[in-house]
Specification:
The chain is mainly α and 187 residues long. The protein has 7 helices and no strands. Helices cover 83% and strands 0% of the residues.
């Protein structure tokens, strides 16, 4: 049985969603994204691109992987994320192609900022020490916010979740999620 290009796209979309779910799980539980997961996803992304469009699909897939990695490397170099996160974005880029990989990386950075803000707010609320009973209430709030930001700077959080949000948003915008749903509904 030979798959149509739409079916290949649907399989690729399902595969990248499974890969993201596994990566998010591993990152949440172990604060690591296994290299074998990223490598398998990268190879599968290239294979799906070959099935969909031949060698030109492979070129697009490799381009997407390079763009995905390149978009996050500066943050890795600044110690803002781990190498597994960069490789995960590259593996996802192999499924997305260059344009959508760049869009997904940008959306992942926005989602990461929202996640970091949530962590800061949570830590600020949890930080009970400090001048809470100070007559200058604003000074107490500023102290707590500064303490929370200091804590968060050294805290690790699963960035794979932010990458997942970015990739799912890019898949939605390029119509791949709709193609997956339509293919599953036609089966």
């Amino acid at each position: 049985m030979i798959l149509s290009p739409i079916e290949v796209r649907a399989v690729a979309t399902g595969a990248v969603l499974v890969m993201l779910a596994l990566a998010i799980r591993e990152d949440a539980l172990r604060q690591r994204i296994p290299n074998v997961l990223n490598a398998c996803a990268f190879v599968l992304g290239i294979a799906m691109a070959f099935l969909a469009a031949g060698w030109s699909g492979v070129a697009i897939s490799v381009g997407g992987a390079l763009v995905g990695c390149a978009a996050l490397v500066p943050f890795y170099l600044l110690r803002g994320m781990g190498a597994g996160d960069v490789k995960l974005m590259g593996a996802a880029g192999a499924f997305l192609g260059p344009n959508s990989a760049l869009l997904a990386a940008a959306m992942a950075l926005v989602a990461g900022c929202v996640l970091a803000l949530g962590v800061v707010l949570f830590q600020a609320k949890r930080t009970a020490a400090g001048p809470a009973t100070s007559p200058d209430h604003k000074a107490g709030l500023a102290w707590r916010a500064a303490a929370a930001i200091s804590i968060v700077r050294h805290e690790r959080f699963p960035y794979a979740a932010a990458i997942g949000v970015g990739v799912v948003a890019a898949l939605w915008l390029q119509g791949s999620l709709g193609a997956l749903v339509a293919t599953l509904g036609a089966g």
